[in-house]
Protein backbone atom coordinates (compact mmCIF):
# COMPACT_ATOMS: atom_id res chain seq x y z
CA UNK A 1 0.00 0.00 0.00
CA UNK A 2 3.01 2.30 0.41
CA UNK A 3 3.85 1.97 -3.25
CA UNK A 4 3.15 4.46 -6.00
CA UNK A 5 1.86 3.46 -9.43
CA UNK A 6 3.17 5.24 -12.54
CA UNK A 7 1.03 4.79 -15.66
CA UNK A 8 3.07 5.13 -18.85
CA UNK A 9 6.80 5.20 -19.61
CA UNK A 10 6.93 8.10 -22.06
CA UNK A 11 9.03 11.14 -21.21
CA UNK A 12 6.62 12.13 -18.39
CA UNK A 13 6.49 8.64 -16.88
CA UNK A 14 10.26 8.13 -16.86
CA UNK A 15 10.74 11.60 -15.32
CA UNK A 16 8.35 10.56 -12.53
CA UNK A 17 10.18 7.24 -12.09
CA UNK A 18 13.54 9.00 -11.82
CA UNK A 19 12.31 11.33 -9.07
CA UNK A 20 10.63 8.49 -7.16
CA UNK A 21 13.83 6.41 -7.45
CA UNK A 22 15.98 9.32 -6.26
CA UNK A 23 13.75 9.83 -3.21
CA UNK A 24 13.62 6.16 -2.31
CA UNK A 25 9.87 5.87 -2.87
CA UNK A 26 8.74 2.40 -3.94
CA UNK A 27 6.79 2.27 -7.19
CA UNK A 28 5.68 0.17 -10.14
CA UNK A 29 5.55 1.66 -13.63
CA UNK A 30 3.22 0.07 -16.19
CA UNK A 31 3.81 0.58 -19.90
CA UNK A 32 1.54 -0.86 -22.53
CA UNK A 33 4.25 -0.79 -25.23
CA UNK A 34 7.41 -2.89 -25.38
CA UNK A 35 9.72 0.11 -25.05
CA UNK A 36 9.95 3.43 -23.29
CA UNK A 37 9.57 6.77 -25.12
CA UNK A 38 5.85 6.91 -25.92
CA UNK A 39 5.27 9.40 -28.72
CA UNK A 40 9.03 9.50 -29.48
CA UNK A 41 9.26 5.80 -30.32
CA UNK A 42 8.59 5.79 -34.08
CA UNK A 43 6.16 2.97 -35.04
CA UNK A 44 5.81 2.21 -31.32
CA UNK A 45 4.10 -1.17 -30.89
CA UNK A 46 1.70 0.47 -28.42
CA UNK A 47 0.00 1.77 -31.60
CA UNK A 48 -0.15 5.27 -30.12
CA UNK A 49 2.82 7.25 -31.42
CA UNK A 50 2.10 10.22 -33.69
CA UNK A 51 5.73 10.47 -34.78
CA UNK A 52 6.29 10.60 -38.54
CA UNK A 53 9.51 9.51 -40.23
CA UNK A 54 11.03 12.99 -40.56
CA UNK A 55 10.00 14.32 -37.13
CA UNK A 56 12.53 16.37 -35.18
CA UNK A 57 11.90 18.17 -31.91
CA UNK A 58 10.94 21.82 -32.27
CA UNK A 59 11.82 22.70 -28.69
CA UNK A 60 15.60 22.88 -28.61
CA UNK A 61 17.61 20.23 -26.80
CA UNK A 62 18.40 22.74 -24.03
CA UNK A 63 14.66 23.07 -23.39
CA UNK A 64 13.82 19.39 -23.62
CA UNK A 65 16.71 17.62 -21.92
CA UNK A 66 16.51 16.31 -18.37
CA UNK A 67 18.59 18.41 -15.99
CA UNK A 68 19.85 15.28 -14.25
CA UNK A 69 21.09 13.86 -17.57
CA UNK A 70 21.80 16.46 -20.28
CA UNK A 71 21.75 15.36 -23.91
CA UNK A 72 25.16 14.26 -25.19
CA UNK A 73 27.22 16.95 -26.90
CA UNK A 74 27.20 15.20 -30.30
CA UNK A 75 23.42 15.60 -30.69
CA UNK A 76 22.20 18.48 -32.85
CA UNK A 77 20.21 21.36 -31.38
CA UNK A 78 16.98 19.83 -32.73
CA UNK A 79 17.45 16.04 -32.67
CA UNK A 80 15.34 13.54 -34.62
CA UNK A 81 12.81 11.26 -32.96
CA UNK A 82 15.33 8.39 -33.32
CA UNK A 83 17.87 10.37 -31.31
CA UNK A 84 15.29 11.42 -28.72
CA UNK A 85 14.13 7.82 -28.18
CA UNK A 86 17.75 6.71 -27.78
CA UNK A 87 18.37 9.56 -25.34
CA UNK A 88 15.37 8.45 -23.26
CA UNK A 89 16.74 4.88 -23.28
CA UNK A 90 20.09 6.18 -22.05
CA UNK A 91 18.38 8.29 -19.37
CA UNK A 92 16.65 5.21 -17.94
CA UNK A 93 19.86 3.19 -18.18
CA UNK A 94 21.84 5.96 -16.49
CA UNK A 95 19.43 6.11 -13.56
CA UNK A 96 19.08 2.32 -13.48
CA UNK A 97 15.34 1.83 -13.18
CA UNK A 98 14.41 -0.06 -16.34
CA UNK A 99 13.65 -3.15 -14.28
CA UNK A 100 10.96 -1.20 -12.42
CA UNK A 101 8.94 -0.80 -15.62
CA UNK A 102 6.47 -3.56 -16.51
CA UNK A 103 6.33 -3.50 -20.30
CA UNK A 104 3.45 -4.75 -22.43
CA UNK A 105 1.18 -4.20 -19.44
CA UNK A 106 -1.81 -1.95 -19.94
CA UNK A 107 -3.57 -0.22 -17.07
CA UNK A 108 -7.24 -0.87 -17.69
CA UNK A 109 -8.75 0.72 -14.59
CA UNK A 110 -8.02 2.99 -11.64
CA UNK A 111 -10.55 3.43 -8.85
CA UNK A 112 -10.49 4.94 -5.40
CA UNK A 113 -9.88 2.35 -2.71
CA UNK A 114 -9.58 2.79 1.02
CA UNK A 115 -6.45 4.89 1.63
CA UNK A 116 -5.39 4.92 -1.99
CA UNK A 117 -6.18 3.58 -5.43
CA UNK A 118 -6.94 0.19 -6.85
CA UNK A 119 -5.14 -0.28 -10.18
CA UNK A 120 -6.07 -3.03 -12.63
CA UNK A 121 -3.57 -4.12 -15.27
CA UNK A 122 -3.78 -6.47 -18.25
CA UNK A 123 -0.82 -8.41 -19.59
CA UNK A 124 -0.91 -7.87 -23.36
CA UNK A 125 0.56 -11.28 -24.10
CA UNK A 126 -1.44 -13.51 -21.78
CA UNK A 127 -4.53 -11.33 -21.26
CA UNK A 128 -4.20 -11.93 -17.53
CA UNK A 129 -5.76 -9.18 -15.38
CA UNK A 130 -4.33 -8.31 -11.98
CA UNK A 131 -5.38 -5.68 -9.42
CA UNK A 132 -3.14 -4.00 -6.86
CA UNK A 133 -3.54 -1.18 -4.36
CA UNK A 134 -1.34 1.90 -4.34
CA UNK A 135 -1.20 4.96 -2.17
CA UNK A 136 -0.92 7.21 -5.25
CA UNK A 137 -1.26 6.86 -8.99
CA UNK A 138 0.68 9.10 -11.36
CA UNK A 139 -1.11 9.26 -14.71
CA UNK A 140 1.50 9.80 -17.42
CA UNK A 141 -0.38 8.21 -20.30
CA UNK A 142 0.01 11.12 -22.74
CA UNK A 143 -2.78 12.57 -24.86
CA UNK A 144 -1.50 13.16 -28.38
CA UNK A 145 -2.35 9.56 -29.33
CA UNK A 146 -6.04 10.38 -29.55
CA UNK A 147 -6.79 11.96 -32.97
CA UNK A 148 -9.56 14.56 -32.91
CA UNK A 149 -11.56 14.93 -36.10
CA UNK A 150 -13.67 18.04 -36.75
CA UNK A 151 -16.94 17.89 -34.84
CA UNK A 152 -19.51 18.17 -36.19
CA UNK A 153 -18.11 16.72 -39.41
CA UNK A 154 -17.85 19.12 -42.34
CA UNK A 155 -21.06 19.26 -44.39
CA UNK A 156 -21.22 17.67 -47.84
CA UNK A 157 -19.38 14.64 -49.12
CA UNK A 158 -15.79 13.98 -50.13
CA UNK A 159 -14.71 11.00 -52.23
CA UNK A 160 -10.95 11.37 -51.73
CA UNK A 161 -8.76 9.89 -49.04
CA UNK A 162 -8.93 11.51 -45.59
CA UNK A 163 -6.06 11.19 -43.15
CA UNK A 164 -5.57 12.57 -39.66
CA UNK A 165 -2.04 13.83 -38.92
CA UNK A 166 -1.76 11.24 -36.14
CA UNK A 167 -1.58 8.48 -38.78
CA UNK A 168 0.83 10.26 -41.14
CA UNK A 169 4.27 8.61 -41.45
CA UNK A 170 5.82 9.35 -44.87
CA UNK A 171 4.72 11.42 -47.92
CA UNK A 172 4.68 8.71 -50.66
CA UNK A 173 0.91 8.33 -50.40
CA UNK A 174 0.55 11.91 -51.70
CA UNK A 175 2.55 11.29 -54.88
CA UNK A 176 0.99 13.08 -57.88
CA UNK A 177 -2.20 13.85 -55.93
CA UNK A 178 -3.88 17.15 -55.16
CA UNK A 179 -3.56 17.52 -51.40
CA UNK A 180 -5.30 19.85 -48.98
CA UNK A 181 -3.72 20.14 -45.55
CA UNK A 182 -6.07 21.61 -42.96
CA UNK A 183 -4.77 23.65 -40.02
CA UNK A 184 -1.68 25.70 -39.26
CA UNK A 185 -0.19 23.76 -36.34
CA UNK A 186 3.24 22.14 -36.43
CA UNK A 187 1.86 18.90 -37.89
CA UNK A 188 0.10 20.70 -40.72
CA UNK A 189 3.16 22.77 -41.60
CA UNK A 190 5.55 19.79 -41.62
CA UNK A 191 3.14 17.61 -43.60
CA UNK A 192 2.42 20.36 -46.14
CA UNK A 193 6.15 20.82 -46.75
CA UNK A 194 6.69 17.08 -47.25
CA UNK A 195 3.59 16.71 -49.40
CA UNK A 196 4.62 19.61 -51.61
CA UNK A 197 7.76 17.70 -52.66
CA UNK A 198 5.84 14.75 -54.13
CA UNK A 199 2.26 15.84 -54.77
CA UNK A 200 0.83 17.39 -57.92
CA UNK A 201 -0.24 20.37 -55.81
CA UNK A 202 -0.48 21.03 -52.08
CA UNK A 203 -2.76 23.59 -50.45
CA UNK A 204 -2.65 24.70 -46.83
CA UNK A 205 -5.98 25.92 -45.41
CA UNK A 206 -6.51 27.55 -42.04
CA UNK A 207 -9.39 29.24 -40.29
CA UNK A 208 -7.18 31.84 -38.61
CA UNK A 209 -3.64 33.10 -38.85
CA UNK A 210 -0.57 32.04 -36.92
CA UNK A 211 2.94 33.32 -36.40
CA UNK A 212 5.55 31.06 -38.00
CA UNK A 213 8.75 31.33 -36.00
CA UNK A 214 12.14 30.18 -37.31
CA UNK A 215 14.00 27.59 -35.28
CA UNK A 216 16.98 29.96 -35.00
CA UNK A 217 17.05 33.66 -34.19
CA UNK A 218 19.13 35.48 -36.80
CA UNK A 219 20.16 32.06 -38.07
CA UNK A 220 22.19 31.45 -34.92
CA UNK A 221 20.50 31.16 -31.57
CA UNK A 222 17.85 28.44 -31.05
CA UNK A 223 14.63 30.31 -30.47
CA UNK A 224 13.64 28.15 -27.52
CA UNK A 225 17.03 28.05 -25.85
CA UNK A 226 17.46 29.13 -22.26
CA UNK A 227 19.07 32.53 -21.67
CA UNK A 228 22.80 32.09 -21.71
CA UNK A 229 23.61 34.72 -19.10
CA UNK A 230 22.39 34.66 -15.54
CA UNK A 231 20.29 37.65 -14.40
CA UNK A 232 22.51 40.58 -13.55
CA UNK A 233 25.42 39.41 -15.68
CA UNK A 234 26.66 41.89 -18.20
CA UNK A 235 26.94 41.78 -21.96
CA UNK A 236 30.07 43.56 -23.19
CA UNK A 237 29.11 47.10 -24.09
CA UNK A 238 26.33 47.38 -21.50
CA UNK A 239 26.56 49.41 -18.36
CA UNK A 240 24.58 49.55 -15.18
CA UNK A 241 21.06 50.93 -15.73
CA UNK A 242 20.62 53.83 -13.32
CA UNK A 243 16.93 53.12 -12.89
CA UNK A 244 17.66 49.72 -11.37
CA UNK A 245 14.13 48.74 -12.36
CA UNK A 246 14.80 46.18 -15.06
CA UNK A 247 17.57 43.62 -15.23
CA UNK A 248 20.00 46.35 -14.28
CA UNK A 249 21.91 46.73 -17.53
CA UNK A 250 21.43 48.82 -20.64
CA UNK A 251 23.39 49.46 -23.78
CA UNK A 252 26.27 51.83 -23.18
CA UNK A 253 25.85 52.95 -26.77
CA UNK A 254 22.39 54.40 -26.12
CA UNK A 255 22.41 55.37 -22.47
CA UNK A 256 19.54 57.80 -22.83
CA UNK A 257 17.20 55.39 -24.63
CA UNK A 258 14.57 54.03 -22.32
CA UNK A 259 14.91 50.32 -21.78
CA UNK A 260 11.72 48.74 -23.20
CA UNK A 261 11.48 46.28 -20.36
CA UNK A 262 11.28 48.95 -17.67
CA UNK A 263 8.50 48.46 -15.19
CA UNK A 264 5.38 50.50 -15.88
CA UNK A 265 2.24 50.89 -13.87
CA UNK A 266 0.44 48.31 -16.02
CA UNK A 267 3.19 45.76 -16.58
CA UNK A 268 5.28 43.92 -14.03
CA UNK A 269 9.06 44.23 -14.20
CA UNK A 270 10.82 41.77 -16.45
CA UNK A 271 13.71 39.99 -14.85
CA UNK A 272 15.90 40.37 -17.89
CA UNK A 273 16.09 43.02 -20.52
CA UNK A 274 15.54 41.24 -23.85
CA UNK A 275 17.02 44.02 -25.95
CA UNK A 276 20.20 45.10 -24.28
CA UNK A 277 21.34 42.24 -22.07
C1 LIG B 1 4.03 15.01 -33.68
C2 LIG B 1 4.39 15.54 -32.30
C3 LIG B 1 5.56 16.27 -32.11
C4 LIG B 1 5.88 16.78 -30.86
N1 LIG B 1 7.03 17.55 -30.73
C5 LIG B 1 7.36 18.00 -29.51
C6 LIG B 1 8.58 18.73 -29.33
O1 LIG B 1 9.32 19.00 -30.29
N2 LIG B 1 8.91 19.14 -28.09
C7 LIG B 1 8.10 18.86 -27.00
O2 LIG B 1 8.45 19.24 -25.89
N3 LIG B 1 6.94 18.19 -27.15
C8 LIG B 1 6.56 17.75 -28.37
N4 LIG B 1 5.40 17.03 -28.51
C9 LIG B 1 4.56 16.78 -27.35
C10 LIG B 1 4.75 15.33 -26.82
O3 LIG B 1 3.49 14.89 -26.45
C11 LIG B 1 5.72 15.32 -25.67
O4 LIG B 1 7.03 15.60 -26.17
C12 LIG B 1 5.87 13.98 -24.96
O5 LIG B 1 5.86 12.90 -25.85
C13 LIG B 1 4.78 13.77 -23.93
O6 LIG B 1 5.20 12.68 -23.15
P1 LIG B 1 4.19 11.84 -22.25
O7 LIG B 1 5.02 10.87 -21.50
O8 LIG B 1 3.31 12.77 -21.48
O9 LIG B 1 3.22 11.10 -23.29
P2 LIG B 1 3.58 10.00 -24.38
O10 LIG B 1 4.86 10.26 -25.05
O11 LIG B 1 2.35 9.89 -25.22
O12 LIG B 1 3.75 8.68 -23.52
C14 LIG B 1 2.66 8.08 -22.85
C15 LIG B 1 3.04 6.63 -22.53
O13 LIG B 1 1.99 6.06 -21.75
C16 LIG B 1 1.71 4.75 -22.24
N5 LIG B 1 0.32 4.44 -21.93
C17 LIG B 1 -0.78 5.10 -22.37
N6 LIG B 1 -1.88 4.55 -21.86
C18 LIG B 1 -1.46 3.53 -21.06
C19 LIG B 1 -2.14 2.58 -20.24
N7 LIG B 1 -3.48 2.59 -20.13
N8 LIG B 1 -1.41 1.67 -19.57
C20 LIG B 1 -0.05 1.66 -19.66
N9 LIG B 1 0.64 2.54 -20.42
C21 LIG B 1 -0.06 3.45 -21.10
C22 LIG B 1 1.98 4.83 -23.73
O14 LIG B 1 2.23 3.55 -24.28
C23 LIG B 1 3.18 5.77 -23.79
O15 LIG B 1 4.40 5.07 -23.74
C24 LIG B 1 5.03 16.54 -29.76
C25 LIG B 1 3.85 15.80 -29.95
C26 LIG B 1 3.54 15.32 -31.20
C27 LIG B 1 2.26 14.53 -31.38
N1 LIG C 1 8.38 18.74 -33.14
C1 LIG C 1 7.63 19.16 -34.14
O1 LIG C 1 8.12 19.64 -35.12
C2 LIG C 1 6.14 18.95 -34.04
C3 LIG C 1 5.45 18.52 -35.15
C4 LIG C 1 4.09 18.29 -35.04
C5 LIG C 1 3.43 18.54 -33.86
N2 LIG C 1 4.13 18.99 -32.78
C6 LIG C 1 3.45 19.25 -31.50
O2 LIG C 1 2.35 18.38 -31.37
C7 LIG C 1 1.25 19.07 -30.76
C8 LIG C 1 0.04 18.99 -31.68
O3 LIG C 1 0.31 19.75 -32.86
P1 LIG C 1 -0.67 19.67 -34.13
O4 LIG C 1 -0.14 20.58 -35.16
O5 LIG C 1 -0.91 18.24 -34.48
O6 LIG C 1 -2.08 20.18 -33.57
P2 LIG C 1 -2.52 21.66 -33.12
O7 LIG C 1 -1.35 22.45 -32.68
O8 LIG C 1 -3.66 21.49 -32.20
O9 LIG C 1 -3.05 22.34 -34.49
C9 LIG C 1 -4.26 21.92 -35.08
C10 LIG C 1 -4.60 22.84 -36.23
O10 LIG C 1 -5.79 22.36 -36.86
C11 LIG C 1 -6.77 23.39 -36.87
N3 LIG C 1 -8.10 22.83 -36.72
C12 LIG C 1 -8.53 21.99 -35.74
N4 LIG C 1 -9.84 21.70 -35.92
C13 LIG C 1 -10.22 22.37 -37.04
C14 LIG C 1 -11.45 22.48 -37.73
N5 LIG C 1 -12.56 21.84 -37.33
N6 LIG C 1 -11.49 23.25 -38.83
C15 LIG C 1 -10.37 23.91 -39.27
N7 LIG C 1 -9.19 23.84 -38.65
C16 LIG C 1 -9.12 23.07 -37.54
C17 LIG C 1 -6.42 24.28 -35.70
O11 LIG C 1 -6.99 25.53 -35.87
P3 LIG C 1 -7.40 26.41 -34.57
O12 LIG C 1 -6.10 26.83 -33.94
O13 LIG C 1 -8.19 27.51 -35.16
O14 LIG C 1 -8.19 25.47 -33.69
C18 LIG C 1 -4.88 24.27 -35.81
O15 LIG C 1 -4.44 25.18 -36.80
C19 LIG C 1 1.75 20.50 -30.49
O16 LIG C 1 2.23 20.56 -29.18
C20 LIG C 1 2.89 20.65 -31.47
O17 LIG C 1 3.87 21.59 -31.02
C21 LIG C 1 5.46 19.21 -32.86
Any key phrases for this structure?
single chain; 277 residues; alpha/beta; FAD/NAD(P)-binding domain; 3 domains; 4-stranded parallel beta sheet; 3-stranded antiparallel beta sheet; disordered C terminus; binds flavin-adenine dinucleotide; binds NADP nicotinamide-adenine-dinucleotide phosphate
What can you tell me about this protein's structure?
This protein is of the alpha/beta class. It has 3 domains: 4-139, FAD/NAD(P)-binding domain (3-Layer(bba) Sandwich); 147-228, FAD/NAD(P)-binding domain, CATH 3.50.50; 232-272, no CATH class. Helices cover 16% and strands 21% of the residues. The protein has 4 helices and 13 strands. The protein has helices at 11-22, 61-64, 81-95, 186-198; strands at residues 4-7, 27-30, 101-102, 105-113, 116-123, 129-134, 136-139, 178-182, 201-205, 216-217, 221-222, 238-240, 249-251. The strands form 5 sheets. The protein has a 4-stranded parallel beta sheet, covered by helices on one side. Mean pLDDT is 86; it is low at 243-277. The structure holds flavin-adenine dinucleotide and NADP nicotinamide-adenine-dinucleotide phosphate. NADP nicotinamide-adenine-dinucleotide phosphate (NAP) binds at residues 55, 57-58, 144, 150, 165, 182-188, 190, 206-208.
Amino acid sequence: MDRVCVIGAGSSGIAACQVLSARGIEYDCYETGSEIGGNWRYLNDNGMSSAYRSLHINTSRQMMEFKSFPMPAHLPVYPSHFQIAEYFDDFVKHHGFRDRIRFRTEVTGVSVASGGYSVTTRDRDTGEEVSGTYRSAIVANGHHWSPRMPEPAFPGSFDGEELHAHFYKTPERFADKKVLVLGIGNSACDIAVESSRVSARTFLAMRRGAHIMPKYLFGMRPITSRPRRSPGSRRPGCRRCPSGRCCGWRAASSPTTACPSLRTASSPPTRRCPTTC
